[in-house]
Design a protein that fits this description.
Four Helix Bundle (Hemerythrin (Met), subunit A), seven-stranded antiparallel β-sheet, 49% helix
Length: 329
């Protein structure tokens, strides 16, 4: 059995920040999960629906791996990413850093992992791998998936080779810190303003505050959008609250990030953003509860209420991001 020593699993909620935390702590950089999420400008929103989709998708963060790229750039980290179509080379990319004493991040489809529940395909899942033997791989995943876990080498190979939405070609990555360690506090303002700019100026109406507004109109029709509302609506609500989002579709994480930032930066704009995201997080959880209730009861009025709240959230988050964008002025 080959393992990297001094690996610490914490009670984290989101897969990508979980893996980043493991890799960075091994480099001597210890940041909270909300700080990792915020410095990576992770917050976003997307509403997506198409004819070939079984049910609409609500997303609350940037695309898979964009958070990692953002964080590495912001902290001046050396990010080495390797991809290949060859399973043999993919395995070599993993064992080389582990044999050298360094954990490695993997992007894969969570469906194939032995320990993962519920069994849904998600090609943007990220884990940290720190060891292996002849039969199993040893990983760190989110707290809800067990923290320090193992899966068979066969299942890991299947997860890494999977193809479909958001998958990557056996992607693995490592991080290395510069000799002069960056000060996260000095990267707070650029991270916040970049996130705010993207949220306020989305290229299409499905994204950012415009996407939230669009979702508010579309959600009212969701009972007619599915042939199994008792399955699809509670599932959508579950994904918003418990599928590695930290609750409230990642708004809890961003609220925590802004709260931590107020300890380092004295700004009325920052306090305004934090106050609005504190309120927004509560409303997002309420929206999820209304969507679940609509599916369970068939009561369309619940979706009308959810749509009204989403309209309010579009305005609230727009105001929050407008205040936060002023930090760079």
């Amino acid at each position: 059995m080959t393992t990297v020593t001094n690996i610490e699993a914490r009670g984290t909620q989101h897969c990508e920040t979980t893996a980043l935390g493991v890799l960075l702590r091994h480099q001597g950089i210890d940041l909270s999960e909300p700080m990792l999420f915020g410095l990576g400008s992770g917050l976003s929103f997307i509403y997506w629906d198409s004819k070939n989709m079984g049910f609409p998708f609500l997303g609350g963060r940037v695309k898979p791996f964009d958070l990692t790229r953002n964080l590495a750039t912001r902290l001046g980290l050396e990010l080495l990413v390797q991809e290949t179509t060859s399973p043999r080379r993919a395995w070599e990319h993993v064992v080389a850093p582990i044999d050298a004493g360094h954990p490695v991040g993997l992007q894969l489809d969570s469906y194939h992992l032995d320990y993962f529940a519920p069994k849904v395909h998600f090609g943007g899942h990220v884990v940290a791998m720190y060891g292996y033997d002849d039969r199993d791989a040893y990983l760190v995943d989110t707290d809800q998936q067990g923290g320090t876990v193992s899966t068979s080498l066969t299942s890991l190979a299947q997860a890494r080779a999977a193809r479909g939405p958001m998958t990557a070609k056996h992607r693995s990555f490592t991080l290395a810190a510069p000799r002069i360690r960056p000060s996260p506090q000095g990267r707070i303002v650029p991270a916040i303003t970049a996130c705010a700019d993207a949220f306020l100026n989305p290229p299409i109406a499905n994204l950012g505050h415009r996407g939230v507004e669009k979702a508010g109109k579309a959600v009212r029709t969701w009972l007619q959008r599915t042939d199994d509302p008792q399955r699809d609506l509670p599932q959508a609500a579950l994904l918003m609250e418990r599928a590695g989002t930290g609750g409230a579709l990642f708004r809890n994480l961003y609220r925590g990030f802004l709260a931590e930032c107020t300890q380092h930066l004295d700004s009325g704009h920052l306090r305004t953003g934090h106050e609005l995201y504190t309120e927004a997080a509560t409303l997002w959880t309420e929206v999820a509860a209304l969507i679940a209730k609509a599916g369970e009861s068939g009561n369309e009025q619940c979706l009308v209420q959810a749509g009204t709240l989403l309209g309010e959230l579009s305005r609230m988050e727009r105001e929050a991001m407008q205040a936060l964008s002023c930090l760079g002025a």
